[in-house]
Amino acid sequence: MRIAIFGAGGVGGYFGGRLSRAGEDVLFLARGEHLRAIREHGLQVESVNGDFVIHPAQAVENPAQGGRVDLVIVGVKAWQVPEAAEAMRPMVGPETSVLTLQNGVEAPDQVAAVLGPSVVLGGSANIISFTAGPGRIRHLGGPASIRFGELDNRGSERSLMLKETLSRAGIPAEIAPETRIALWEKFLFIVPVGGVGAVTRAPIGLLRTIPETKRMLYQGMREILGVAHARGISLDETVIDRTMRFLDTLPPEGTTSMQRDIMGGHPSELEAWNGAVVRLGKRAGVPTPLHDFLYSSLLPMERKSRGQVRFPG
Questions:
Q1: CATH fold for domain 182-305
Q2: 182-305 and 2-177 share a CATH fold
Q3: 120, 111 contact by CB (below 8 A)
Q4: Strand partners, 125
């Protein structure tokens, strides 16, 4: 299978590396020093499941150089998805599938608005990984699995083929019975952890053990559950307890990508995470006081990272 990894960062780089190692024809889309390092030294993956290097690795900056592919895995940040969807047009043909793996609930519809709904598979990745340096991906933990499916929940041959392809590469894969529910389940987990972690600057191990921050996580999940139900997403009431138990299985030093970006002074996915909860909650008439607080508290740093405001001194 000819696969393009559009955004070869922590998530795209890890899964693309696994697929390439398994013999798939993988093309990495990257920029700057990251692109240069991949071309010269290969893609280096440091993983709790075993380190490996993809060398030589196919890597380009311009999507038009890659030609049409069978599958595009979208690994960019959530706020970059609309631009990425436009840029990947040269790679998308009548038989191409586009798999979104963003931590949010809006990416599949954003891609569908540009390329049409028929090409889109909505997915979520359960992994803690990040770009450790040019050409280097570090995987700290998590199941390193993917849940995905058609947006209309129908069974499809391409979904089965993709599941088989991922499984051959050692990537645990599941076709979600209801794709939107799967996306919201991941949203309910990642957004409170990201927001509370970014405000407190604390890793997951502390967030889940300090009673005060644990209560914040629980409240954040309750708010998202309320918004989901108001929007017709039938999340089960047990999802919060299941998610809190899942938190206990993660590495104590783990952090979310949004927390790392905000702490590092980089543009983050704040608008697509806590900002989306606030925005969608207002539309549905559901109060989201914790996410209002998290979003408002983090907004100055977010705007500073984008050059929209300056701090004195």
A1: N-(1-d-carboxylethyl)-l-norvaline Dehydrogenase; domain 2 (1.10.1040)
A2: no
A3: yes
A4: 146
CATH placement of domain 2-177: 3.40.50.720
pLDDT tens digits, 58-108? 999 999 998 999 999 999 999 999 999 999 999 999 999 999 999 999 999
Per-residue pLDDT of 97-138, as tens digits, reads 999 999 999 999 999 999 999 999 999 999 999 999 999 999
User: What are the backbone dihedrals phi and psi of residue 147, each rounded to the nearest 5 degrees, phi first?
Assistant: -115, 135
Please choose, from the candidates 114, 142, 116, the residue with its C-alpha nearest in 3D space to the C-alpha of residue 128: 142
Which tokens belong to 301?
A: 């740093």
pTM (2 decimals)? 0.93
